[in-house]
Design brief:
By secondary structure, this protein is mostly helical. The protein contains 15 helices and two strands. It has helices spanning about 10-35, 40-65, 70-90, 100-105, 120-140, 150-170, 170-175, 195-220, 220-230, 235-240, 245-270, 280-290, 295-315, 320-335, 345-365; strands at about 185, 190. A hairpin with a 2-residue loop joins strand 1 (about 185) and strand 2 (about 190). Helix 8 (about 195-220) packs antiparallel against helix 11 and helix 9 (about 220-230) packs across helix 11. The longest helix is centred in the C-terminal third of the chain and has 27 residues, at about 245-270. The radius of gyration is 22 Å and the shape is globular.
């Protein structure tokens, strides 16, 4: 009688993680800038922002079972916080942003715009504002034990309400157009390809740091507790933990990651609008994580990148049918491959192990 030996030890797992991290750093900071044109590198920067959101979804949904269909809200809060500062900076001291001169009648900035003229406040708000909103919403929802489909519907309704509010405030938020024509980024001209590459490197570094933070949380005692809450809330409550607080932490951290992604998306693309943060974008974020593998950080990131790339490529060929492709991807991933593409390697290893055991059994019988 033999005892099963784990296929990987903690030390091996750490070595693999460091090797993967180093490989990703080489690919992002060396290979991509050399292999891609400025235009393609700009597209990759945009895709990396969606991957940032997917890291948070992996933590909240993949590990905590929280189907977050409203990440567009937090993405938008971070994006608008950054865009408001950049529009104020572009306008210059004492001047109103261009869209306010066109649509508004006020002679000075609205009171809630003024703090965003401070770069430190604006940078902090891109992460802390989404986290604060998530903390308020999460405290209300989780303490009333709202979960499953009801939580998903509430988060999606929040995204729809936020987008509608932005559209209705044309004089102060740009309405349907949003905040556009952003030209500078903390003193750097975004029309300069060199500065665009700098923005790409900032986004790539933020993605790697976010993955490292998420991995640390997942492999900590908190990560184990989060999985336990996902699998059996009542047992965790019986052990003396409050499941609401455990879920709240994951939800707030995921919101902060989405806010950071939105903030970095603005200098990469030069625009933020309600069309980028409503129900459809929120679902797209989830689809990317689901296709790649919501329980795997690497899978969620690669899935988000693949779906974002496919959206750009296929929407050019099938502009009216691309949303159907997205829906089909989501259905196939959930119905036939719940673990996403990342689970294929596990399935192959299991099948190989079963074949080996079967062959050994046959040999012993013979």
């Amino acid at each position: 009688m033999t005892r099963d030996v784990p296929s990987t030890t903690p030390r091996t797992g750490r070595l693999r993680a460091w090797a993967g991290f180093a490989g990703a750093a080489v690919a992002l900071f060396a290979v991509a800038p050399l292999a891609l044109s400025d235009f393609r590198l700009g597209l990759l920067a945009k895709y990396l922002c969606t991957a940032l959101v997917a890291v948070g979804i992996c933590l909240a949904w993949g590990r905590g079972g929280l189907l977050t269909l409203g990440q567009g809200v937090f993405f938008g809060l971070g994006g608008y916080a950054m865009a408001m500062h950049l529009k104020i900076a572009d306008a210059g001291a004492g001047n109103l942003p261009d869209f306010m001169q066109l649509y508004g009648s006020a002679s000075e900035l609205p009171w809630w715009w003024r703090p965003f003229g401070n770069p430190v406040f604006a940078l902090a708000a891109t992460v802390l504002l989404p986290m604060a909103v998530a903390a308020l919403l999460g405290s209300f929802v989780f303490r009333r034990r709202v979960k499953g489909a009801y939580f998903a519907i509430l988060s999606q309704a929040l995204a729809a309400a936020f987008a509608l509010w932005l559209i209705g405030q044309q004089a102060t938020t740009g309405g349907t157009n949003g905040l556009t024509d952003i030209r500078g980024f903390f003193g750097y001209d975004l029309q300069d390809p060199v500065n665009q590459r700098m923005v790409y490197f900032v986004i790539a570094a933020a993605l790697l740091l976010t993955i490292a933070l998420a991995r640390q949380l997942i492999h900590s005692r908190y990560g184990e507790l989060l999985v336990a809450v996902r699998d059996s809330e009542e047992r965790v409550r019986f052990l003396g933990y409050d499941p609401a607080n455990v879920k709240l932490v994951a939800y707030v951290v995921a919101a902060g990651m989405a806010g950071l992604a939105g903030a970095l998306f603005v200098p990469a693309v030069g625009i933020i609008s309600p069309a980028l943060i409503g129900i459809v974008p929120s679902i797209e974020f989830v689809i990317g994580a689901a296709v790649g593998g919501r329980a795997s950080l690497v899978g969620a990131v690669l899935g988000a990148l693949a779906v974002a790339w496919a959206r750009t490529a296929l929407s050019e060929e099938f502009p009216a049918a691309w949303t159907y492709f997205q829906g089909l991807l989501f259905i196939v991933a959930l119905a036939f491959l719940p673990g996403g593409i990342a689970s294929l390697a596990v399935l192959v290893r299991r099948r190989t192990a079963r074949s080996t055991v079967s062959a050994g059994t046959v040999g012993e019988t013979a």
